[in-house]
Amino acid sequence: MTAKQKMTLIVYAPALAGNDSRPVSVVHGMEQVFPSLRLNWRITADGHPVALPQRDAWLVEETKNGGFSLVCNGDENHPVMIYGLELPAASSPGGQAQFEVHVQMPSDAAGLTVVTDVLEAVAESARASWGQATPSSAGADIARQTKNWAANPQPPPRGLPVLKLPEKLRSPEIPHRLGWLNYWSVNAAKAIGFPDPNRDAELLSRARRTESGGWIVRLTDAPLDLDNPAHLEALLRAYERFPEIGGRAT
Are 91 and 169 within 8 A, CB to CB? Predict the structure, then answer.
């Protein structure tokens, strides 16, 4: 894993409504589990960080159109950032608009120490149905599994299965895809049939419960690297185990 590799986290939750407090809660939750992290900066249109002395008030003001504006740590050498946006109903499972939260953070030793806690904190604060955290290189290949065949007739890379577009999924609780770390709420775990003690012993050995009763499930001990045959095989096994993910179940 290179020094420039990033860890990308995305969680999917019910759409924001009214004076929704979740954007501020998500940022607070991330700061609480990431030692010394303060997301008290915004980025200007020309890419420069600007301090936010009244960050929470600014976030409330900048929560609009179903999401919230990007805030970051202001460190250009080790950037950490978070923002939210709306996945419109027409592009969402079950025709229900979704609140997407995106995080980027370094995948250095310090980042890897806290990434599981960050995923849990962000997902639970957002009241997410599901989410995942994946190194950027593996994430690029996984993203190519979701197919609009008319726009891109090429099959997914590395023999990975084809996943349906989000709007083709029957329920927001069904994950669109897998990642290295997977957050599944109680309802998402039920929707995909996890856990089965007889079939999921290996996954359970790398899983933990969350405060809300959901799960964080790690596919491989080390960050997912699809150039590693053992890691690719672990990802393929997980897709075979959970055909509901990506709408592949008949």
Answer: no
